Amino acid sequence: MSRWGQKDLLGLEYLTGEQIEHILLTADSFKEVSTRGVKKVPALRGKTVVNLFYEPSTRTRISFEIAAKRLSADVINIETETSSIRKGETLIDTGLNIQALKADIIVVRHNASGAAAMLARRVDISVINAGDGWHEHPTQALLDIFTIRQRLGRIQGLNISIVGDIAHSRVARSNIWGLTKLGARVTVCAPKMLIPPGIEKMGVRITDKIDNAIQEADAINVLRMQFERDKTTAFPKQLEYFKNFAVTEERLKRAKKDIIVMHPGPINRGIEISSEVADGCRSVILEQVTNGIAVRMAVLFLAWQGRRGL
Amino acid sequence: MSIIIKQGLVVDPSQGLRAIKDVLIENGKIVRIADCIIPGTSQAINAKGLVVMPGLVDMHAHLREPGREDKETIETATMAALAGGITSVLAMPNTTPCIDSAQAAGLLQKRIQKSAKANVFVAGALTKNRKGHALTDIEGLCNKSVLAFTDDGSSVDDEKLLSSAFDICRKTGVLIVCHCEDTALSAGGTVNRGFISTSMGLRGISKESEYKRVERDINIAESAQARIHIAHVSCAESVDVIRQAKAKGVKVTAETCPHYLMLCEDDVRGFDTNKKMNPPLRSCDDRNSLKRAVIDGVIDIVSTDHAPHTENEKDIEFERAAFGVIGLETMLPVTLTALYGNDSTDLTKIAQICSTGPARILGLKKGTLSAGSDADVVIFDPEREWMVEKRGIVSKSKNSAFLGMRLKGKVIFTILNGAVAYQA
Question: Would you call the peptide bond into A266 cis, given omega within 30 degrees of 0 as the criterion?
Fold first, then answer.
């Protein structure tokens, strides 16, 4: 098994299938830590992880914070609303200052695509992309893949459907890169206006019929509809979307018996997914949240190792 | 003061010349081209193994002065031009203040006289403050030596207004340069719309936003029986529209920029803001179409669209970074690297698209080495390779799309008005 060997995690597009496997295997070994009485290992003791979040986030930031603490790292959370960033400091200057303060890893969430890549080019310390614009959200995809494999035993040859606002979703992009590299067949399903151009070149099948997306799927990943992004009349209305695209019990009757239903959160109940499904026996949504800690522990640990050239 | 350029390969499409010759320059003019001229007291430049061409003419450069001297000045831009073998530049009017009045044009002319190191010609704004609402005094500006009119950076949305402008320009014989962009289709975009915009998670700029506006603008010019020049063509569909218009006899000329001949959207993948420009780098197929269009003459010339920006405006998140790249120093090398030797493009074609062609379009007595013409000359080595490095850039801003790339073709001497103005 090849080592991951990267200083940064910027996206799954830039990793090989072997590197993704390596992260998942490392996450496997960290998963058990969270079940211990003392939920800590000393892997990053004495290291400092800075969570630099330019966008509101609860789940991802807390997950990274817990992951870092379980590795015994010291964690600093920078709230952009109360920091020098409000005074106009650039991302690069902020990053260089964090580096000068001798932090070891920056976890960055930003609303601009490519922000993490830009930061990584300018600092020597590790940069973990915790979501950049519409571009990538690699740790979310890794935890999604980790969860699918935990539940279904493999990725190779599975049919995975991603349903929802594909155009504006960094989760969709990271999932597509990761899943296809590991041999899954990926279908994206959305109203036509939410299918971005050229996405078929990422190796996916496209449909605008939810039943087609469900029919053969082993797992279905439901994305949040980002109604706030588009006020145009062409954008589907909430009720219209629920009627045509929501994952409901009724629709799942035509699915494979052991299909699993995923969602990266936050959930819009009654819009992209019914409450029955979100809370039902096929749902692995909370397992995803739990697995996020192991995956992020693995990523933080491997990034630190990668920086040291290990 | 006289100079003899000895034994260079003299390439001048204006007189169908491509031969090893000596060129005699006296008192700022080309005097004679012959097989052998005895130097006498003249300064001799040994051009053996080098190419001697008419100084290049760039009809699309943003000099930023007045208003944004932190990015570039007339002085620094023209020094950069000379380093690139460019002896004449057409300055775009999107300065602060905008060149939309006789007063602004007059002030700019004074600044040019004071600090320009190369020939600078002025393009005036087509509409007041380039807002697209009211035409400028085109005839009045023509009296201030304004050579062309454009709202470059913006397209004129109002068809009636543009039609009126073409009517006036037909009567005065002056050229309109059109930046073709339907912003209803391109709004918010930063890269070419397609797989790359999707995989990078960026809003795309469709090719329709360009070629539909090219089509519209040409139709308006055709109705007015006026001349039109299409700026910075980036995609195959625009080429098709221009080809059809030319076949119909419309008085249309067109330019593309060296970066569209050399790079494509794949080069943007690393979120390098120095490859962010408008129109954006398109697909490899578009790049190949543009090359063919330059070779077969549908695209008449190349222009730099030199757009300097400070590091503060470029060294930030891709979506927020300014559009545009510098190009004065790399126009010739990039054009050579992209075209010369690869597509059976000869040096006569290079001279045509970089010098003789733009001079003809602008009606300038430049772009020629014929006896009696201004002695604006570039002498370069078409084979010498060099690396584009930030520290070597003369332009005040360093936002080159070619940083770290090896280019073929190095300017050795630039002669302006009969004197060596740049030497490598």
Answer: yes
